Amino acid sequence: MRLHLTFLFFFIVGNWAFCQLPDCQINNHTKNMKLTGNKIVEHIECELQINSAKGTNYAEIRIDYKKGNNIKELEASIYDITGNKIRTLKKKDITKANAFSYGQFHSDDMILSFKLIHNQYPYIIKYSYSEDINEYLYLAYWIPRRNKNIEVKKAQLQIEIPKNLNFRIIKTNIDSAKTEYLSTTDRHTWTIENVGYPEQESYGPRKAELFPKVIVIPEDFRYGIIGSTKTWQSYGNWNYRLKKGLDELSDAEKIKVKQLTEPLKTNKEKVNALYKYMQENTRYINVALDIGGLEPLSAESVCTNKYGDCKALCNYMHAILREAGINSVYTTIYADSKPVKINPEYPSQQFNHVILSVPLEKDTIWLECTDSTSPFNYLGTFTQNRTALLIQKDNSHLVQTPDLSPKEVANNYKSVVQIKPNGETILISSITMRGRSFDYLKGLDDGLPESKKINYLDEMNLFENADIHTYEIKRPHRDSTWLKLNLGATLNHIAEPIGKRLLLKPICPFSIDLEKPEKRNHEVIFNYPINISDSTLYQLPQALQSISGIQNQDITCNFGSYQRIITHNEKNLTIHRKILIKAGTYYLKDYPELYNFISTCSNNELQKAIITYKSN
To answer: How far apart, in whole angstroms, are the C-alpha atoms of residue 443 and residue 433?
Structure first.
């Protein structure tokens, strides 16, 4: 009996332990890299444990590589949890394919993939392979954990570098390497166990900045042509040489440029005319051919095919401006409403987009060449206020793009809310949108059929608990940096009649949720100001006698300001509000004060008005 009870105890505890396991985990992952001659030889070994049927989704192994690189010595097998081999991968089960991603037209990215499935859990997949990397910008770019749902128990990077090679190391949230000094090389090893996964905080740094990672940047690299990361100027020279000779136009295009610009007097007028010509006669597609998608298609190719990616369209725009006698500068930048910080101390490939800058006598014009409806000389929230690299022969250098002012991002709501005796409410609103809202709504208006737009308007959550039934998007002209959204909606649960009173929850165009100070780990980043003004007229079903529960507010501090003004007459209640949050990075020492300001504003927005009607 004791033996049976002991067995039962371990059976229950063992199964309970397995139940606590994630669906999938990496027990061990090693990456060994060695620079040999003009190529990097990389060897990968991975032990992946599938703990449940849900984890089977991760049993499809995908190896990404560039066309021209060589994947070799691929081996893979399935093992049970005690280490017994069950099955070995066969060559016929391996698939090679082009790695087209959404929005890509051409790509040289490749995928090698295979599946190893078993019907008893947990089971283990072990696989290994080597890759010859013929072109590289980095010696290593190692992020040991990228997937929130896959725990990583242990990971190791080992890189062997010739002693005569100059390089630099960037590491984040990981211990320093153990270094072995060999006869002709140095071997650097980083090991990390139980790799954490950063949680995204509200208005915090991007996860890409928080992951444990190691980046090894060689001073001299080989990517298409030999380049150098010694300085930003030398790195820019590599970019410059990469596109050299690709800015020639067809004869027909040269004639067209002359026709467009000859009647115009100023360079700014000529830039505007050529920019609109480019927008109207080309379209954006994603092309990632040859050297990793960093070399643009030729301007002549764009003349012929009328398409290109950001590199090709900027190169083409540069070419037609040059034909008109106007200088412009190919400019690399990180485009996103939440950009990654560029590290100025480490010249290297830190950008994901290209725009064009046009220096004139009294001003610099910035052109976004991938958007056929972008206003002239407009940098939206995706490219404003960040570090960019101007690519010029022997003069490449970092610059800061212009930032959007509070006026340029101001959103203004003017609304009328009709409240019926039973509490049913109808909203009629006109919203002037700028900044991020303009960028989003313009893209929505340009890219979607009418039948789908209303669904995206609902997702914008412009008004809480609103069922939108009519809308109209109006843009005054093509260079307008604002648009008007007129809409009608039914509002739910904002007015509750209680006898001779009405409980009213005013509509709220502002909402920011921040973590409590004791739970915040990183700085707060507002990449551009938040500037919202709102005037709402509530039409009441009965004559108003008094109002309580909400009152005027006026708050000003280092982070911004908040005002609320309440007025009323016998039949109408009007609430005017304005909130401004200044752009900037606010570190943890200032976070309690910032949190107090924003939570005070948010709490004010949650207050309900108690309206008492006059007696008949």
So the answer is: 13
What is the pLDDT, as a whole number, of residue 10? 41
Q: 449 near 435, Cβ under 8 Å? A: no
Query: Is residue 291 scored above 80 in pLDDT?
Result: no
Contact status, residue 496 vs residue 502, Cβ threshold 8 Å:
yes
Look at residue 511 in the predicted model and tell me its pLDDT: 83
Beta bridge partners of residue 486, listed in sequence order: 430, 472
Give ∠ CA 260-266-267 in degrees, rounded to 5: 75
Class of CATH domain 407-613: mainly beta
CATH 2.60.40.3140 fits 20-218, yes or no: yes
* Per-residue pLDDT at 226 exceeds 50: yes
Cβ-based neighbour number of residue 188 at 10 Å: 22
Residues 126, 77: contact at Cβ < 8 Å? Answer: yes
Phi-psi region for residue 245, left (φ > 0), alpha (ψ -120 to 50) or beta?
Answer: left
* pTM for the whole structure: 0.90
Q: How many CA atoms lie within 13 A of 366 on its CB side?
A: 19
Q: What is the largest CA-CA distance in the chain?
A: 103
Calculate helix-pair angle for 251-261, 310-323, nearest 10 degrees: 60
Q: Is the pLDDT of residue 103 over 70?
A: no
pLDDT at 113: 94
Residues 68, 80: Cα–Cα separation, whole Å: 36
Tell me the C-alpha distance between 300 and 248, whole Å.
Answer: 6
CATH topology of domain 228-400: C8orf32 fold (3.10.620)
Characterize the bridge pairing of strands 150-162 and 24-36.
parallel
**Distance of alpha carbon 576 from alpha carbon 562, whole angstroms:** 11
At residue 370, the 3 state secondary structure works out as: coil
User: Does the pLDDT of residue 18 top 60, yes or no?
Assistant: no
* Pairing status of strand 39-50 against strand 60-66: unpaired
- Average pLDDT score over the chain: 92
List C-alpha distances in Å: 466 to 85, 114, 427, 487, 493.
58, 47, 9, 11, 9
Q: What is the SS3 string spanning 505-530?
A: CCCCCCCCCCCCHHHCCCCEEECCCE
